[in-house]
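S., here's the first fold you wanted:
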Amino acid sequence: MHSNASEGGIPANGGVNGSEREHKLELFGFDSLVNILGLKSMTAEQVAAPSSPRDGEDGSIAYERARVNDVKLGTMMGVFVPCLQNILGIIYYIRFTWIVGMAGIGESLLLVAFCGLCTFLTSISLSAIATNGAMKGGGPYYLIGRALGPEVGVSIGLCFFLGNAVAGALYVLGAVETFLKAVPAAGIFRETVTKVNGTMISEPIESPSSHDLQIYGIVVTVILCFIVFGGVKMINRVAPAFLIPVLFSLFCIFIGVFAARKNNPTTGITGLSLESFKDNWSSDYQFTNDAGVPDPEGKTYWNFNALVGLFFPAVTGIMAGSNRSASLKDTQRSIPVGTLAATLTTTALYLISVLFFGALATRDKLLTDRLLTATIAWPFPAIVYIGIILSTLGAALQSLTGAPRLLAAIANDDILPVLNYFRAADGHEPHIATLFTAFICICCVVIGNLDLITPTVTMFFLLCYSGVNLSCFLLDLLDAPSWRPRWKFHHWSLSLLGASLCVVIMFLISWSFTVVSLALASLIYYYVSIKGKAGDWGDGFKSAYFQLALRSLRSLGANQVHPKNWYPIPLIFCRPWGKLPENVPCHPKLADFANCMKKKGRGMSIFVSILDGDYHERAEDAKAACKQLGTYIDYKNCEGVAEIVVAPSMFEGFRGIVQTMGLGNLKPNIVVMRYPEIWRRENLTEIPATFVGIINDCIVANKAVVIVKGLDEWPNEYQRQYGTIDLYWIVRDGGLMLLLSQLLLTKESFESCKIQVFCIAEEDSDAEELKTDVKKFLYDLRMQAEVIVVSMRSWDAQAEGGSQQDESLEAFTAAQRRIASYLTEMKSGAEGEGNVLMADGKPVVVNEQQVEKFLFTTLKLNSTILRYSRMAAVVLVSLPPPPVNHPAYFYMEYMDLLVENVPRLLMVRGYRRDVVTLFT
């Protein structure tokens, strides 16, 4: 025993490649162990149906590749430095002192805290999602798409791509403006001279010409584009070097803050002064010109909301680390720690800077000196200029490298065919996507106004952040078994708060920009849902639907459904009683009829087909048939599910289905099938027993039954019918026949018809009283119908005469002859045992007088239908249950006589539940 166990176990050295090992594992039902990482059956499923071209990679291959490349970045260089480089940028250098002057110290602190809280909460959500499994290319697009589905992922991903592309233009313009400020002589056109009104400073303020910004911006963008084409590996190696001058310039700025009073005799710079701190505490919102200089005649009025839009790009960039997940040594640890550390560090830097800048200079100096950080820098302003230019160019390079990869990742997922031009093979540069990104960037540079571009960038980034927060909120709230993030410091309420903050900030900035960005995302979502290829990424909505379905199912309970809430759930037999081509999984008119049983398409149908044979032998056939049937249901626009059952016979298959199909109160309540009109023509002797058995099983299982005669002539949705829908209401059926007639009227093909209700009464009953009662009942049910009472008299062929009765009489006598012949055969085969016949496997004694009575009654009903309803669009009649002690063959004769010469007939049998109610 011990030796066998040790042989079957996995050896301590972990060897898994030997043929002997694979052979021994056959005992467990697996072919072999996957090299190093796991079971082949698991990876094979992923390869068979990859969620994207990148997802189909074998886990072991990815593992080996990681070992070969040996690219292992830690938290500092892999996450913290890229995030810091992307967060610290142009806004801090050029606009931050101006924001402090405009909003005052108090509201500036609130502004920084508000925006910082938004990105902090987003970082927590990002940390949770990023540590819930391996991340692939696409960054936030990958996270959002896998959590909220391909439609939401692509719509937000494309908006995020636009945001990154436009942000590249923002960084380029910032670098060019800084360069022209530092070297005014480089300007080609005359500089714009802004007169200062209403301030203490008398000298004019110069700002670069917009044409210079456009020309230099286009040149810089083209140069950066060439650098990107030159190779991303070099950019990634050089990128950290861009951060060193930035940090050094920050160091010089803070030294300059403390030494400002001695080293800066410039007007307006007071040094760290309590008086300046008090003067600058409150806000001073006012009009400015396009250059941001205070001007009572300016076009732009600034308030807190507008400053949120201007400042928010200064806190973006938290996704930079997650985009490098493939190069990290420990993704599960580095992304949360690095991203949150960068977010907290920059937020603390901004808060401290607000206090220092507010105490450093007068408000006029803060509002008019756009490069105050360079003015106060120690030992000379050039350090800050170099820091600004390098930081903005580095950030622009990151945008021009990250945005094309984001677009290529969306294209590679093959959701939108229109994006196939931007696809890039693994390991290849996305050149076309890079050119497209550069084109967008140049278009934004031509606009030339920084303050017009920043709100656009802000909207797209906020849209992406809200998507990340909503993804974490949904996953955390559903708490599916696969939701096991290593980052434990998260909660769905924090994610919901983060998403709400993102939306609030969007509307604070500009409701018009918000509406435009949401409309753009909605249009992309709608376009993807129509034109996109379906992809099952295991998104959170699938889990939400599942849990919602479970809760709804439990809330329905197992009690009887109230008639007001009753919906038909038909169980439709797709291929009984008649041959269909192999490539047609369901009779087309059955699908049309199923739609007629729903009001405005609401409701669920279960399409069932039974395969004869052994389940072990035909399991694969059943899967293929189920897939084919499901595709056909979608093609016919039927809301329903496909089920294929393998059974030794149709009768046994149906008996299993009628007992087990469905869950709780979502079990099918109506069995729909075609009437077997071909049984006598093709001499199918097994049909009567199967047909009667199915009806009896439905009665025992308390299912309603609808049998369609004349299915081939049933109209589709485009064939308009005229005339009447005639109901022969014989027995109480819970109102099912009435309800079916009303559902037919809701369809275009039957909406021009009128309903006639024929009440079959006994000859000695009060017909007028019955008619009054039925009319009152229909009025209370809100149903419009003409009521006709027909009295059934004893059958008398001589008295009735006429061609209709002649047709019925001929069918009647033919049925009599066949039944007599059947009885003679059975008597001769019973070897002298008398009138003993078998019905449903049991011996029965046939009462020939009762058989004659059933034939008479059926004939009379058929004659009545032919007399009143020969021109009806459709006739509904109560389905008589199979009589006890009558062989199945006899019941088929009764049914044939009932449907004789009626072109389109529905035989309806209700069940012991009301499906309509008088009460509101």
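And the second, which I think is the more interesting of the pair:
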Amino acid sequence: MATFAKPENALKRAEELINVGQKQDALQALHDLITSKRYRAWQKTHEKIMFKYIELCVDMRRGRFAKDGLIQYRIICQQVNVNSLEEVIKHFMDLSTKRAELARSQAQALEEALDVDDLEADKRPEDLMLSYVSGEKGKDRSDRELVTPWFKFLWETYRTVLEILRNNSKLMALYADTAHRAFQFCKQYKRTTEFRRLCEIIRNHLANLNKYRDQRDRPDLTAPESLHFYLDTRFEQLKVATELELWQEAFRSVEDIYGLTSMVKKMPKSSLMAIYYAKLTEIFWISSSHLYHAYAWFKLFQLQKSFNKNLNQKDLQLIASSVLLAALSAPPYDHLKTASHLELEHDKERNLRMYNLIGFNIDAKLETREVLSRSSLLADLVSKGVMTYVTQEVKDLYHLLENEFLPLDLASKVQPLLTKIAKLGGKISSASSVPEVQLSQYIPALEKVATLRLLQQVSQVYQTMKVETLSKMVPFFDFSAVERISVDAVKHNFIAMKVDHMKGAIIFGDLGFESDTLQDHLSVLAINLNKSRSLIYPSQSKASKLSAMLPSLADIVDKEHKKLLARKSIIEKRKEEQERHLLEMEREEETKRLKLQKKTEEAEQKRLATEFEERKHQRILREIEEREREEAQALLNDVGKRIKKKGKKPIIEGEKVTKQSLMELAMQEQVRERQEMEKKMQKLIKTMDHFERAKREEAAPLIEAAFQRCLAEEKIRHEREQQLEVELSRERHEGDLKEKYRLARVMEHKMELEEKVVSRRKAEYDRMRAEREERLGQILKARKEERDLKRKMLFYLKTEKERLDKLREEEEARKREEAERRKKEEAERRAKLDEIAERQRKREQELEERERLRKEAILRGTPIDGPTRPSELPAPAPAPAAAAAPAAAAAASAAGSGGGKYVPRHRRGAPAETAAPPPAQPSSDRWGSGKPEERGAAPPGDKWRPSSFGSGSAGGASGGAGGKSWSSSRFSR
């Protein structure tokens, strides 16, 4: 552990270590200084050291070091300068928040950046393995590595600060601000788990505050400022809980607010109570506690009406409608009719608890089922005048559901009202606690209540009914939903009905056991049995047997009735005895528990009181001794100064003097000084008395003379001013008379001018009125003509459009017919061409076959019987005109090629005159019997073909008939 002569040396050493990168050593050095007992006297340097220490802790995320340092610094400056502790804590939270936000922004930037070096390269093997093993995406991994550690540290910061400030009455504002910042942190980042822990931490702080009341700096909850901070924190907790939809935590926050107000016996301001009841309505609605939701709305309505002066009529009407609809949405039956005794007691305690939370004060001995009910709430709404503010649709719905008996038309009349109510709602301008009210949220519950009312009224009128009929009467739900609703109602004895699915019928019954059909069931049974017997065994003497049977039957009925009554009374007694036994057991257990708890509390209170008295007695003794020591020292100094002033021998401080001796000496000195002062004052009073008497004797005649002189001057001034006022009044009167006479002369001219002006303005008015009427008539006429013209134009446009549409349809039909005709002709033409091509192909095959046979015959040396050249072939049968040209072209191409050579299709279609066959030559010329230069002669205009030249065929050698020889240019080609 390093030791320093001054705290400044530790700060300087830490900065040196930070500059060389040794932050851990710098943090340890500052921590040793803060925790050392040598430097417990607060100085301004301590604050600088703490700032540097906090910065290092935040930079290195050392939450425990920060907590230890803040606790030690609280010990140092708690009694000297608590504001320094506040500044350090604020700096700590600001740094943690900034670093968390910075980490979050870096994670977002890292997610958006393109961190790939080569865009064409695949992922690295280690990245693939990491992704397969961890299963995380890039953003999740960056959050886990960057954001999560800083958010954890920020959360630890809030917890540390709350723990340090929990029992500090001087920093209540900072405690509340820290709690608010922690709430906002949980709200911003949706941290529900941390929010629950935060609420539990604050709740435990308050519990410990009430448990240990003898702490030195404990906040006083009865003080208005402390109560304001605590309530403000609880209300912020309630708001954040509802926004995060943590309804259980929101309900616990409501209980915290109620417990705090009950503890200090003081209600918060009306604005906070409005927020309280608004949040209660949300909590009860989410938990489907419609009755408690309606009571909370009722209290909110009363509070807004009493304290919110800016509430206009529309907002008040909307809130009142919400109150009445919430009350109507509650189920019309009691859930506890079939409950057991324990359930009834539990529900009684629950109702008392809810009543306290809502703000109603009732007697615990009363039956809360009668007080806390739907009927009593509706009666309160009527008696308190809420119905006067409700909209007409909601009021009509209330009368239909509660006062009307319409078993067949109830649903049909309720449905349009619910449709209108669903459209009502909006923002409330002047009630900040309830920013918006939407009445559509009550529609499902109201539909269920309307269905229950319809079933109740139908069961009172009908005994049986078809399922289809009931389904048509209830347009809100299908029959399966109605059946679920009816099962719940039957369970709570609201109606009695059965559903026979095989017959498709609904059977309604009576609820009470002592109903009209069951009161005389034995007599009805006897009568039916007697009728059955008389039908089976008819008898002549019916009257005599009936008279003999009636007395015994009456006795039997009476006996059965008595047995039933006795059995019922026995059952009731057994129930009462069992309930009494259970109540006695519960009372005994509760009494034992209360006694034990009371003894424990008394013992704890006695121990605490004894310890408190001892500490108080010791503190008083110490204070008395210290006060006496201070007073003796002050008296000693005072007496020494007085004795020095008088020139006497002063008291030596080292002498053994007691407080009593010093007090006696001081009293003597004071008495002596007082006597001397009284003598001086007596002498001074006597001197001043003589001096004052002499002054007054000399001034008396001068004062009298001055008074008489002033009196004469005032009299003269009064007479002069009075005379001047009379003269001025007379002059004003004469001037007014002259003005009156002067104006009277022009009165007649004034009247004439007035008449002229009135008549001229009336004429002008009549003229302008006539012009206006004429202008209006012209405008009306022009508008009428414009309407006629527009109507005609529309008619013309309509007819023209119809005509154009008809022409367009005819043109499209003509085009379709033309296209079909063309398509048909094209198909026929293609069929003819295909037929001609097929014939040509067959003819070519025949020619090739003949040429092949001829060549084979020539090679074998056998004579050829048939024609050997294409020109010697017999002429083909005449073909159709359309096929003449292609056939001639094909024959010419075949002859010119020297036999069965392939002729391209584009050569086949050449004109016939270009491919005319050469004239026939004698057989001797075919084998080269002519001149040498004539052997290779080719037909004029023909080209050389290597195949025919090399083979020495007749087709190649028979071309020199005309005495023409091949040109060298042809051969060279």
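Why I say that: The CA atoms of residues 312 and 430 lie 8 Å apart. The radius of gyration is 61 Å.

Talk tomorrow,
H.
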